Structure prediction request, 561 residues.
Amino acid sequence: MEAVLLSKTIEAVWRIESARLLGGLVRIVRDVGLAEDLAQEALVEALERWPESGVPRNPGAWLMSVAKNRALDRLRRERMQDRRHEAIGEVAPRHHLPDPEGALDEDVGDDLLRLVLIACHPVLSAQARVALTLRLLGGLTTEEIARAFLVPEPTIAQRIVRAKRTLAEAKVPFEVPRGDALLERLPAVLEVVYLVFNEGHAATRGDEWTRAELCEEALRLGRILAGLVPGEAEVHGLVALMELQASRLRARRGPDGAPILLLDQDRSRWDRLLIHRGLSALARAEALARPLGPYALQAAIAACHARARRADETDWKRIVALYDALAEVTQSVVVELNRAVAVSMAFGPAAGLELVDELRDEPSLRAYHLLPSVRGDLLAKLGRHDEAKREFEHAASLTQNARERELLLGRVASCR
Amino acid sequence: MRVMVMVKATKNSEAGVMPSEELFVEMGKFNEELVKAGVLLAGDGLHPSGRGKRVRFSGGKKQVIDGPFAETKELVAGYWIWQVKSMDEAVEWAKRCPDPMPGEESELEIRPVFEAEDFGEAFTPELREKEEALRAETARRLAKG
Prediction:
């Protein structure tokens, strides 16, 4: 087989197998850094051996057995060292390495879940969790993660090294928690997945309006999670939310690259397959939980838009009711702002403006460009153009996204 | 990227021979694996072409043709829609599929779904240039600071 062709095959095998391989290794050696080293060594061996031997029938098992042998080698070396130390009266403290031969038949799903829970452990910062999750579960290289987040590569590399150190120092347990203990850990995991999705969905920096690959990666992680903990309503809620938002990705940009807002989008460009998947995931979440959690509620709102064939068929009253519930669960002023928009659509701009004005003194919204943007929009609808213009100008000065700024300056120009 | 994976028809599949229980179980496992990897978006098996119809467009006329259709190997017996990172990944997954038509020669055909328009057409060369310039600028600034 040609070298280029083979390296592509190995890359593909790696994408499919690396998370499972790592998950299995973490269970055996109970050390994320060591597990990654072993997996890398197995990959290097594949790159050396497969060009001659061809790709094995079961590449995953091949990689696992190579990595396991490397683990055994290390264990033997350490034991020999220990014995030497003992002989001269020293007892070197060793981290406990369980017998790699044992516990191999455990559920692969458990291995993946363990890996997710460790990568998203609450001792880590959200940034560190995101980087580690993309690295360990997405199989993304440091370079790819750095590129996606517009951060220099060494920064991501450092983040990952530090995260692994923090996990080791905190002596994070490697048992997969069950029942309520598992439930407690899930929000941190869902948060990471949604952060990745949002980073792709609406870049806060730079000129890019969407970064499809991050969205796809987040969706993939979400779908995997739904398979790992199928009984959890919020996992399905998050998947539903992401599927529904992703269904509109290709309608979000005009031919000139300018953003198109939800109500102005060409709905025939929405992805029916993703809408269908999103609605099914939402139905699963609804069947599992009453009342709905924050992700499922947001998905339910997104579903109202997905179900409307035309923008003017949107069930705004239902959206208001869903925002009521969401505001209660999240206590978030940003949700209140969204609720105000929904109220304006259901009951007119004056009713919406009243609610927005209540939020004007909210300190956490002071630098938030969407507050003046929404207010400007409502004022314009009420024919108060001078005030609207000032709000759009203010909003444009607050946003960090160049495309959004263009959009807002366009609104400024139209206020006359 | 999204791909459609078509299971090509065989004599048996066209004759309506149902898969063995063993194959059902194997295929179920494979599908489960695809779901758990976040790869499977949709998929179904299709009835033999005897239950199908064709609408032929020719010279402004439309003609309805009833199945079955002759060219067995070109017919589709089932399909999946997969979300993968590359055609290579799709091929790797396809290689893991249990033999869909044991005892007969069969094929899986993998075709990328057209989605260039999603991020391509809208992403004009000027924009791409702008974006690349921005990336370079960002990298330069970050390297300095």
